Amino acid sequence: MSTIDTESFLTLHYRMRGPDGHEVISTFGGMPATLSMGGGQLSPAIEQRLLGLEEGAKAVFELPAGDAFGPHNPEAVQWVARSMLDQLGDPDEKYAPGDVVQFPTPDGLGQYAGAVVASKPDASAVLFDFNHPLAGQAVTFEVHVIGVL
């Protein structure tokens, strides 16, 4: 049987639950995921726990608060001027708490997301949280390793 190492290509089913037990994402019941270890699809802390698992293995990992996606960084909560948002998207867009907005990276080659927290009363700026939604939280990660190359 093949064993997961740092350069493995994987086919697996996985499920992630937040600290309240709410399912955040799951491939169970659908198509399995395929990914490369070290490719950035999973956090390094989760990848570390997969190392050594064999093809066919099933496991559940409890990751303590902040381990899976790092601590919540208050500096990643920032006001973005409405004028900038208008330039990047639809000037008529309404932003409500909980909305997730995609932003281009400074080099224009990628994207990152921010979740709306609040808007200024005069609508001149919107407060975004650019942390991962599970940053600073405990996570349960369940996996069924289907294939290892």
End-to-end distance: 10 Å
Helical stretch tally:
2
Q: Structural class of the helix and strand makeup?
A: mainly beta
- Sheet-strand content, in percent, reads 35-45%
How do the SSEs run, as a string of H and E?
A: EEEHEEHEEEE
Helical amount among residues, as a percent range?
under 10%
Structure notes:
By secondary structure, this protein is mostly beta strands. It has helices at residues 44-50, 82-88; strands spanning 9-17, 23-26, 33-36, 58-63, 77-81, 100-104, 111-119, 125-129, 139-148. Strands 1, 2, 3, 4 and 9 form a five-stranded antiparallel beta sheet that branches. Strand 7 and strand 8 form a beta hairpin. The N and C termini lie close together (10 Å).
Which SSEs are present, and which pair or pack?
Elements: E1 9-17, E2 23-26, E3 33-36, H1 44-50, E4 58-63, E5 77-81, H2 82-88, E6 100-104, E7 111-119, E8 125-129, E9 139-148
Antiparallel strand pairs: 1-2, 1-3, 1-9, 4-9, 5-8, 6-7, 7-8
